Every structure is written in structure tokens, then in C-alpha cells.
Fold these 2 entries.
Entry 1:
Amino acid sequence: MTASPAVEDLHTALAGETETYRELVGLTRRERVALQDKNLTSLAEIVRQKEAVLADLMRGEHTRTQILARLSEEINVPASASLSDIIAVLEGPEAQNLLSLRQELTDLVEQLLSLNHGNHLLLQSELDQVDATFNYLMSSTFTTDGAYTARGDARPQATPGTVLNWRI
Amino acid sequence: MVMIDKIPPKLPASYLNDVIRPQGRTEAAPQGKARQAGEPSAEVSLSDDARALQRAMEVVKNTPDVRTDLVQEKRAQIEAGTYRIDFEALAGRLLSFLK
């Protein structure tokens, strides 16, 4: 089968998506470090960058869908065809290039999903720890001193320093 | 020796301070200083609650300042399911295509 412009465009689009996913994997690794360091400022910046990359990915997906629509007419495959279906009807270097690109992209996406899942668990754990520490300190700090206000409410300690100034 | 067998969690802190700093005890004595004859012993044994509080204080001391606004933002994203679902949905569709 002769080279199709749509196949070349598909290759270009997938190569672009590969680079975007590579960038995303890098950001997600940095996100892991920020989470482990409990660096929320860095985390916020990384998430902002990830959101920008997400927009690139959405554009990439849109472009790929348009190319597949053209490709289905050019090489007579359904628009819903998978890359394997497309590769199956191609020959030579076109097929080989797409095969290697497919492997690289698959590895990156699986790596990203794994990293993202781990980061999600880590973030959830950190938030739970913040909650637990905060609640514990609040319950310890705002004890009453045994006195009551004129309205009969238990009077809290005059300052939160009750616990925070505590020395052993 | 002053023994604190059990400190209730809601014990008034004034009492806690009195017990932990027995009368006559000042700030931590220089290490290595031998106690003089006749000097009152001020050793303290901490209960589990006091130890837990001590650990909590150490955690706070060693934890960087927390930006509560950022914490709430991340929590909202997690609860809304948008923190990772966007990527997963895109990645999932791409994987389907690549198979």
C-alpha cells in the first residue's frame, strides 16, 4: 500500500502525543517528590503545569480523531479502528514506525497511570494526616480551665499556648 | 520521683504544667551535672497520653507551614474526582486506541 498523507499525519500526531505524555510523566514524578516533601507550594505549581499539559492532550486527542476520520476514507478502515487495525493494513516502514511509536506511547501511558494512582494515594494519606494532627491539637488546645463564663459556658484557655508552650 | 500514672485527655493544662514542672524545678538542667546531695529529685514519668501529645508536637514542629487554602483546594479536587480522572479518562481512551 502506498503512503497516505493521513498516515503521515497520524504518525506526527502520535509523536506529538508521545512527547506530551513524556512531559506529563516527568511532572508526575516531580509531583511525587513534592508530596513526599510535603511541599504544597511546589505541588500547586506542578498541578498548574499538569493542567496546561492536560489541555495539550485534549487538543492532541481531537487532532487524532480528525485524522482517523480522514484515514478511514483513505485506507478503508472504520473510523473506530484501533492502531493495530491500521497497522495491519499498512506495510513497510510506515507500519514499523507506528509499531515502535505504539510501544513507546503505551509504556508512557501505563507509567503515567501507575504514578498518578500512587500520587493520589499519597496525597490522600497526607491530607488525612493533616486532618488528624489538626483535630488532635484542637482537642488538646481548647480544653477548659475548669472555669465558666457568666453565661455558664465552659471557659476555654486564655491562649492556645497552653499546649504550644508546653515543655518537657 | 513524681509519677504520672494516667493523664485524662481533657485534663486542664494548668494541672498538667504543674505536674510536669514540679515546684522547684527550673528549665532543663545542664547535662552531665551531677545532682548535689540533698537536692530534690524532679524526675518525671510520662503517661501514654502525654507521650502521644509530645509526639504530635514533634510532628507539628517538623512539618512545614501548611497552606490551608491549598489543602482545601486539593481536597476539593479529590472529592470532585477531577484531580486524576481527567488524565485517566484521556489515557484510557488512548490505550484503547493503541491496543
Note: Chain A touches chain B through 49 residues (CB under 8 Å).
Entry 2:
Amino acid sequence: MSTEKLSSASPGTEPGAEDTPTTPTFAMMRTLGIVSAICGMIIVGSYLVTLPAAKANRRIATERAVFKVLPEAKSINEYISLPGGVIESAKEGDLPPGAVKFYAAYDAGGKLSGIAAEGSAKGYAEAVRIMFGYKPECQCIVGIGVVSMRETPGIGDKIQVDKDFLANFESLDVKLNKELTALANKVETVRHGTKANPWQIDAITGATVTSRAVGKGINDAAQLLMPRLLPKLEKIKEKS
Amino acid sequence: MNPAPVSTWTEFTEGLWERNPVFVMVLGMCPTMAITTSAINSISMGLATTFVLTTSCLLISMLRHMIPKDVRIATYIVIIATFVTVVDYAIQAISLSMYEALGAYIQLIVANCLVLGRAEAHAARNPPWASAVNATGIGLGFTLGLTMIGAVREILGSGTLLGISLFGSHYQPWVVMILPPGGFFVMGLWLLLFSIVRKHRKSAADAVKEGCHGA
């Protein structure tokens, strides 16, 4: 019905398929082939042209996120920790299965000043991805920053600015148990005003779901990374 | 083939007012509602769409005699998707925070009916120059429409315009405006305003015409 309308609106360009000779298959294949080849060249060309700038942007964004949670750091190295506990420099491309990426931050003298890693958990809308800074001396988290989230403006996004909430992460306990297999105490988010222990996070009233996502993101990442990382800390003490 | 030659200027301005994609044709509503939470998002989305529109209409128009009609839609989509990919890469190279603010809506330009609509209705039957000019006009009209919605939502919803605070710290932002419902409220009010203006213009034009007849 709509085709009829179209063809009557524009005579000559949209004739009914029945009364015109069919296009030879070869012509269709030729056109699609040529068009795809042109398009392929355009895509590859623009990829190559924009790649250096895009990479630089990503590196700057990562550095900025790490420096935000570890303000005294001056440079970073990217590492991955493998399931067996092996730590190696991060390479480009996809992570091997089970590997966790983290950033070792160094001060001006090249000494390790802290570790930063990313954690994520489902928030109210999408995954809340946060970067947290970790100090080996106190085995605690000393700061968080949001990498990406789509939480409700004015409600969930308070996790970035709420002073009482951010105070939870000035020294959040993530000590390992004696066997160094898991955290001694699970990081957990508790109802506003009921925080009693240094491993608990005091939620924001009205933004409990987002607060919980932050706690779960940190816990999941720390449970995975810290047992692998702590025994090998010597290896990354100095900037390589 | 063309009934009457259309001037370049008319081709260009058609998209800005007479066939404004947002307020008159009401096309491409998905990005219109989703990313107009701030003026800068609206402008960048509009310009990205303008680039895709112009380049793909130019290429489609150049190839229009060799595209068999049976596979024309497939060909158009391949061409449009190519330029969407180019824009995607370009925005990643320009600003990562912009790329994250626009999210999936950059890739979704490929599904914007505005672009395919222009390709089918204009680029496929006009010479390259005219198509490119017309597409640019339509693209800028789209940018204008998005920015008008985005600016209002940002002013009311965050108390800022292009990131500059307008009312000082005591202003309590009207958060609903940057939430999805705000998009519909502002869009509705703009549509209302535009149809009132158009009605007035039309009745004024009719009055002039009648006057001429009388004389």
C-alpha cells in the first residue's frame, strides 16, 4: 500500500517491480562489491588516522582517573595479575581470561605510592564503574572516583559529591585474612548512620542502590585482586 | 527529471526551517529525546549527524546511476554505516568524555530514519552538489533543533548553559528536565510554539494573497 503511494508520488523513479526487466544478478553483485570495497577503504583509512589520538586520549583519561584517587602519584605503570598470582606488564588487546588489570602509581622518586584498580557492579541504571586507590602500608582504600555511570542525576550521582559518603573511602579497611586468600572482612554497604567498622560503607539516604553498587564493586575487585597482589608487591615496588 | 531547477540557497535553507527535521518532519526522535540533556551534547550529536548526512548523501548521489534499485537500500545502509564508523572513530580521537556522554547514540545514527530518508528521497535523484547542500541544510536544521531542546533542558535542569552557571549556587535545579520526561515536555512546548508561528505566518500570507486578488 505504501509502495503504491510512493510510486505515484514520484513517477519514473519508483516503478512497480513487475513491469520492469529484472536487474541482472551480476550488476547487483558488482555494485555491492564496489561499494563495500570503497567503504572498507574509508573505514580502514579513518581508523589508522584516528588511532594515535584515540590511544593518547584513553591513556590521559586513565592517568587522570588514577591521579584523582592517588593524588601524590606522578606516573603509572599498567599491570595485569593472572589467576596463578603471576604479575606482568599489561599488553595491548584483550585481557587473558581471569586476568585483572591494575595500575601501580609511583611518586616523583619512582617509589610505589599506591595501587589503583577498577571495580564495577550493577547500579540503578547501568553498571557503576569506579576506580579506587589502595595503599599497601595500611591495606586500605584511600579514595574512589567514578569512571562511568548512568545513575539518576541529582540522586544516584551524589556518590561523586556527597562529602559524608566520600569520607567512607578515606581509609576503608580491605585487610587480607591470615592465609592471604580473601579479605578478612567483606566490604559491605550499610544503612545510613549504622557504620560501625572500618570495612563498612555508610550509604547515602535515597541513593542506597547506587551506594551498594559502589560497595559491591570494590568488594568484588578487592577479593579478586588483593590476595594475588599482596604477596608479589615487592616485584613492583620500584618503577621499572 | 526534476520538475523545476531549485536554487542552491533554497536547497540549503529548506532543512533549516521549512522542513526542519526536528520540528516539522519530526524525524530522528530517538537521539532527540535521549541526548539533549545539555547544549554541548546536542551540538556534538547534531554535527556528527550532519557529517554523516552530508558525506553519505554525496557518495550516494555520485553512485546513483550505478546502484540497481533492487539493492539500493542495502547499498545506502552500507554507505551510511561507513560514515557513522568514521564519526565514531573521530569522536574517540577528539574527546573521550564526549564519546562517553553520547554513548551508543553515535552508532545509532545509522538507524536514524532522517539519514536514510534523505538518501532515498533526495540524494538518489539529484546531482551530488545539490544533495550535499541539501543534506548539510537538513543536518544543520537537526543540530539547531537539538540545541534548542538541549539548551532549555540544561538551563532548567542544571542551571547552566554550555557548562556556565547562570543563576548562582542558590538555584535549585529542576532535575526532571534532564530526566527522560523533560525531553518530552520541552519538545512538546517547542512544537506548540512552532505550529502557532506557522499558523500565523500562513494566515498572514493568505491575507496578502487575497489582497492581491482583490486588486
Note: DSSP finds eight helices and two strands in chain B.
